[in-house]
Amino acid sequence: METKLIKGLSQIQSKYDAFFIDLWGVMHNGIKLYPEAIEVLENLQKLNKRFVLMSNAPRPSKKVENFLLNLKMNKTFTKNIFTSGEAAIKSIQNNIYGKKFYHLGPERDNSLFEGLEKNKRSLEEADFILCTGFLEKEEDSLSFYKNLLKKYIGLKMICTNPDLMVHRGSKKEYCAGTLAAIFQELGGEVIYFGKPYPEIYKFCTNKNEKVLVVGDNIRTDIKGANNMKFDSLFITDGIHRNEFMNLTFEKYDRILENYGVRTNFFQKKLTW
């Protein structure tokens, strides 16, 4: 597979029917939207191309829509959001893992289990752990979580965001995937929702569509595209920016090979 460094999505858009575009790191940095990426959505819309703004956010799609509207994203673009939280809650509502859960995560994620609050329990009473991220009072202490979880590896953990970390502006923040990795290291079983796992794509894919995945995370966006046999466009100036800084294009593929994945196209930032 030949990999190309492209100047803009306009060079390749005619090959695809649908575009699964990551949010954090591609469309925004947690603080502001990227104008060049918004221009991409404008042009895809003009061409009647279908796009899904696909996020590993551990919240319902509606909450992410509100977040994007606060960043001043046009409402016509926010209709097409699907989150890992949305995929997870559909399974939780069916009581696949039991009814009673312990919520491991900040209060801002409580909307994920709206209507199921009566099933929230302590770790001692829970059937499973619902992991949406770090507790507000223990944002950086990994040893705290190892001590908290080591007695409960008999429970299954539902991880609603497989990402390990994101950039909020220039600052790195841990995500739920880091806690899931700790739980697995302790010997626990984790069930992941979101990229790179297939459920989130199944909700969003139409039959016989040629899909391009656009993302900045090798472990989730590009790995997910590979798993689903979709083409992908990797954005280098995202969560992996330090690995690509000062590299020539000829060495880009080697970085991805170290992660065991391939991509079709590279761009520094998403532009039209």
Give the topology.
Layout: E1 4-5, E2 18-22, H1 35-46, E3 50-55, H2 61-70, E4 81-83, H3 84-92, E5 101-104, E6 128-131, H4 142-149, E7 156-159, E8 165-168, E9 171-174, H5 176-185, E10 189-192, H6 198-204, E11 211-215, H7 218-228, E12 231-235, H8 241-244, H9 252-258, E13 265-267
Parallel strand pairs: 1-13, 2-3, 2-11, 3-4, 5-6, 6-7, 7-10, 11-12, 12-13
Antiparallel strand pairs: 8-9
Highlighted features:
Rossmann fold; alpha/beta; 272 residues; seven-stranded parallel sheet; globular; 9 helices; 2 domains; four-stranded parallel sheet
Q: Can you put this structure into words, describing what you see?
A:
The protein is an alpha/beta fold. It has 2 domains: 123 residues, Rossmann fold; 97 residues, HAD superfamily/HAD-like (Rossmann fold, 3-Layer(aba) Sandwich), CATH 3.40.50. 29% of the residues lie in helices and 19% in strands. The protein contains 9 helices and 13 strands. The strands form 3 sheets. The protein has a 7-stranded parallel sheet with strand order 1-13-12-11-2-3-4, sandwiched between helices. Strands 5-6-7-10 form a 4-stranded parallel sheet, covered by helices on one side. Helix 4 links the parallel strand 6 and strand 7. The radius of gyration is 19 Å and the shape is globular.
